[in-house]
Design a protein that fits this description.
Helices cover 31% and strands 20% of the residues. With 336 residues, the chain is α+β, with helices and mostly antiparallel strands.
């Protein structure tokens, strides 16, 4: 049985208090929201913080308000995101495909955005990792995926980030130096170890989601539930009454150490209708940016090839096609 290491538990009532604790404790402190990723990682000794700073009692972390943008408290659970009709479709689809219903009722939006990167050689218990020698991401000096690499190539595993990037969302961060707001895409670095651009004392408090987009999210995984993504495709469009694309944004997840926007694909669609030809061109552009490595499930060459198909599925759905049968196929069938 894997057990949690010893730790101190702090339960601040305000975000300012939480940030102050983080600043005072330094790298020995970590934030705890739902704990669905952090606590299993602590059992495997991926993280061993001396202090856990709970956000459960912090004021305002679960708020939701709708004006020119939809403001979501980072402490809202993924289950609440799924069940709220105000949530944009793409974000609701992404949240609905995270883990299981029970975990979605514990895991939070902010927690999923800050989710640790994943790798076959990292996401194992301590004894397994010790037996093969530790990896660059934790306790070792070599990346076992790319031994010549000086950078960890562990993969981004968040589902909600690509959906929010496609929607042009922003996050609000609160630290001891004050508040700042950045685009969701700017929250990430292409580094499997230092994957977040958030300062150590900052707390992600809110997500601001622009309204008026038509959006969708498609996820590839081995099983129809529970599994982390090995590919995530999020797309959002603003359409004129005649179907012409006024603006388009397509984001990729689980294809690098960060989720990212493929700007050229959106630019290629602007001013055009979502014809088969336009969709094929955009899908090819996105697929060219997918750079999967051999550190998650499935053959890496197949994962790159199928990116083209998943972008096409997403854009066809935004065009108005009924893709429910194809979604059901991916939800039920093993892709092995």
């Amino acid at each position: 049985m894997m057990r949690l290491p010893w730790f101190e538990y702090r339960a601040p009532r305000t975000v300012a208090e939480a940030a102050a604790i983080l600043a005072a404790e330094g790298p020995q402190a970590m934030l705890l929201a739902g704990g669905t990723d952090l606590l299993p990682n602590m059992k495997r000794r991926h993280q061993t913080p001396r202090v856990l700073v709970s956000l459960r009692a912090v004021e305002g972390m679960k708020k939701i308000s709708e004006g020119s943008t939809l403001v979501l408290g980072a402490g809202r659970t993924l289950g609440e995101i799924v069940s709220d009709p105000r949530t944009p479709t793409g974000l609701r689809q992404a949240a609905a495909q995270v883990a299981t219903a029970q975990l979605r009722d514990m895991g939070t939006l902010g927690g999923n955005l800050c989710l640790d990167t994943r790798c076959t050689y990292y996401n194992q218990n301590y004894e397994w990792r010790k037996a093969i020698d530790f990896c660059l991401k934790k306790d070792g000096k070599t990346c076992w995926v790319a031994p010549a690499s000086r950078r960890c190539v562990a993969v981004s595993s968040t589902d909600t980030a690509p959906a929010l990037i496609a929607l042009g969302a922003r996050v609000r961060l609160f630290g001891v130096a004050g508040e700042r707001e950045i685009a969701v895409e700017a929250l990430y670095r292409n580094d499997g170890i230092a994957w977040l651009a958030k300062k150590p004392d900052e707390v992600l408090t809110e997500v601001h989601v622009p309204l008026g987009w038509k959006s969708t999210y498609w996820k590839l995984r081995r099983r129809g539930a529970f599994d982390f993504p090995v590919l995530g495709v999020a797309a959002a469009v603003r359409l004129a009454p005649d179907g012409t694309v006024l603006e388009a944004r397509i984001a990729l997840g689980a294809s690098a150490s960060r989720p990212f926007l493929v700007e050229k694909a959106g630019e290629r669609l602007a001013g055009r209708k979502l014809t088969d030809e336009a969709i094929a061109e955009a899908a090819a552009l996105v697929a060219s940016r997918a750079k999967p490595l051999d550190n998650t499930d499935f053959d890496l060459y197949w994962r790159k090839a199928v990116a083209d198909d998943f972008v096409a599925y997403a854009l066809r759905e935004l065009r108005g096609e009924d893709m429910r049968a194809l979604r059901l196929r991916y939800a039920r069938a093993s892709l092995s």
